[in-house]
Amino acid sequence: MTPSELFYQSALTSVPGVGDVLIRQLISYCGSASEVFRSTLSKLRKTPGVGEVTARAILHPDVLRAAEVTQQQCEKLGVQQLFYTEKNYPARLKSFYDAPAMLYFQGGADLNAVRTIGIVGTRQATDYGRRITEEIIHALQPFRPLIISGLAYGIDIAAHRASLACGLPTIAVMASGVDIIYPYVHRKTAQEMLLLGGLLTENRPGVKPDARLFPARNRIIAGLSDAIVVVEAAAKGGALITAEYANNYHREVFAVPGHLNQTFSQGCNKLIRDNKAQIYTRPEDLIECLNWDQPVGKTALIDKTALALEFTEEESQILSLFRQQSEWHIDELSWRTQIHMGKLASLMLNLEFKGLVRTLPGKKYQLH
């Protein structure tokens, strides 16, 4: 049987020394993952960023053998492999240069959910932090957001468990393969998350958690979330790294203020002081900032029309943004989607013809 394109995509992610950015470069130059492996050594060396050592590493037979093992593991575990060119790959991540080329997902959540919130914080959460986490999720329940966190001790696991209690989908972004739950004591919660939520990682099955993988994991949490809420954090730690990524990705960041002398409020208070986060005082802070109080009919219109119409990948990417808020300036749309302004104008005209958006003064667009 002829190997699938996904097989070659998986193989490309297993080449030593080839990261997410170079994978995109190779596919852009060669046309597809399968064509990368059909290329000659000479052609590969001409690809920007590829030298002799990398070119030989790509064509080494061990690479395809590793991809075969990964494919078998994913089939056995019921894990989806989502390459960045695929329709089901999270649209919120596609515009970031450092987004994972391949994701591994186990579960039933919609990774392109209309509304998403990331909730993060210290592993040594206080009763105050756990209570605030539960209150946030309970208040957001009517809006049915996808809750994203990292399955760690403290605030993370409190967010996942509160989501399950409220019947909300929740996914854990992991710094290991989906088959290695860390910490192991959260295995039962992880299993409960699979029906409505799931487990997501950029690491192939069998990869054990490692210190260097956690910051990389945090960028995925930030990129997937429309807003990040830091509930409790010390002066240094993973939650602050997630907030930094969120700021770089132009995501909304909120921090819950705490006692001045409380160690695990220092990070939140510092984010607020340095204008790197908005102060969180009530659920309405989130709801109003993300424009979640808009009439349900407008976002429902997109979903209903999507059942009857087919959209290109770029159109779907644009509509994903309009699910987050009903009005956008064309410059912001171009930046968020990384679509050239001329092509974007043509795409917006097409969506206007389909009755989904309308033009406003000042180069703005709004849901029709």
Low-confidence stretches: none
Number of structural domains: 3
Radius of gyration, Cα only, in angstroms?
21 Å
SS-based class: alpha/beta
The beta-strand count equals 12
CATH-assigned fold name of the largest domain: Rossmann fold
Distance between the termini: 48 Å
Helix count? Answer: 17
The largest β sheet comes out as:
9 strands, mixed
Shape: globular
What features would you describe in this structure?
The structure is a single chain. The mean pLDDT is 89. The chain is an alpha/beta fold and 368 residues long. The chain has three domains: 1-77, DNA polymerase, domain 1 (Orthogonal Bundle); 107-289, 3-Layer(aba) Sandwich (Rossmann fold); 296-367, Orthogonal Bundle (Arc Repressor Mutant, subunit A). It has helices at 5-13, 20-30, 33-38, 41-45, 52-58, 61-77, 127-140, 155-165, 187-193, 213-224, 238-248, 266-273, 283-289, 296-308, 313-324, 330-337, 341-353, and strands at residues 80-83, 102-107, 116-120, 146-149, 170-173, 198-201, 227-230, 252-255, 278-279, 327-329, 357-360, 364-367. The N and C termini lie far apart (48 Å). 46% of the residues lie in helices and 13% in strands. Helix 1 (5-13) crosses helix 6 (61-77). Strand 8 (252-255), helix 12 (266-273) and strand 9 form a beta-alpha-beta unit. A nine-stranded mixed beta sheet has the order 1-2-6-5-4-3-7-8-9, with helices on both faces. The protein has a three-stranded antiparallel beta sheet with strand order 10-12-11. One of its GO terms (biological process) is DNA repair. This is DNA-protecting protein DprA. InterPro entries: DprA (IPR003488), DprA_WH (IPR041614), DrpA_SLOG (IPR057666), Hlx-hairpin-Hlx_DNA-bd_motif (IPR003583), RuvA_2-like (IPR010994), WH-like_DNA-bd_sf (IPR036388).
